[in-house]
Design goal:
Blueprint lengths: L5 E7 L4 E4 L5 E14 L5 E13 H10 L5 E15 L2 E15 L9 E3 L10 H7 L27
Parallel strand pairs: 4-6
Antiparallel strand pairs: 1-3, 1-5, 2-3, 3-4, 5-6, 6-7
Length: 160
């Protein structure tokens, strides 16, 4: 079995560029920056930023182009793809993440929404509203879902 899956959460480095391909399909291209914090051999905290090229096709690309702006956080799920072309006798390569689905990150008001590939609707993300999204009552109100304990879980009680 083979697996090609990329999960990224970062901020847009520029506004998405939306174009139409010759066949009529829409494509949005942009990049996001992800940060990684680590300590060097001397124990000094360092930050490293990686930049990722993102490509979204069809309705997903249209929605991303319409609502995403530079600096906005986004969660992207997709596959890694490297394409090549020749220009001026030199072979060029570009590695991209082709979007399968995404979620908007928090806005200034603190709200989030998501977008999965064929549907263009937003979903509620809180556990209380998940039952309503799927047409069932939440579990703590007598629905068919998982029963969650009323008391808080102490991390020290977890055996691993």
């Amino acid at each position: 079995m083979y697996l090609n899956k990329a999960l990224l959460y970062g901020n847009l480095t520029r506004d998405p560029e939306v174009r139409a391909l010759p066949g009529g399909q829409t494509v949005a291209t942009f990049s996001i920056a992800t940060n990684r914090s680590y300590k060097d051999k001397d124990g000094v905290q360092k930050d490293m930023t990686e930049y990722h090229n993102i490509v979204a096709f069809g309705r997903t690309g249209e929605v991303m182009g319409q609502y995403l702006k530079k600096g906005r956080p986004v969660f992207v799920e997709g596959r890694i793809q490297t394409r090549s072309w020749e220009a001026d006798g030199k072979k060029n390569y570009r590695t991209e993440i082709v979007v399968d689905s995404f979620q908007f990150g928090p806005q200034a008001g603190g709200t989030t929404s998501s977008h999965d590939k064929p549907a263009a609707a937003t979903q509620a993300t809180s556990p209380e509203s998940m039952g309503e999204v799927h047409g069932k009552a939440p579990a703590h109100e007598g629905g068919d879902g998982i029963q969650y304990p009323d008391d808080e879980i102490n991390p020290e009680d977890i055996p691993f």
